Prior knowledge:
Elements lengths: L6 E4 L2 E5 L10 H6 L8 H4 L2 H45 L4
Antiparallel strand pairs: 1-2
Amino acid sequence: MKNQFDMIEEDGVVIYDESDDYDPGQNESEQAEEGGFSLMTNEEIFTDEYMQNYAKKMDAQIDREKRMQRLISIGVIIAVILFVGIISYINFKNIL
Length: 96
């Protein structure tokens, strides 16, 4: 089946070309039968292998985030202790 598109030209300049708006998915059922364009189904996209790889990647990302949060927490605690220690030393150095 050959698609025919309207084209409007004035003085050699294309003003409207219907083929610009053409979506090959419009005739999906016809093209799928001919072995042409067809969209993948969810079952074809989300295979078990894909889901397992995705789960591994997300688990690794969660582990990295937990490790980073733990390091940040330790850093904040140490910084607060040092800050309090320095302020205490400055205020009470005359007593020592």
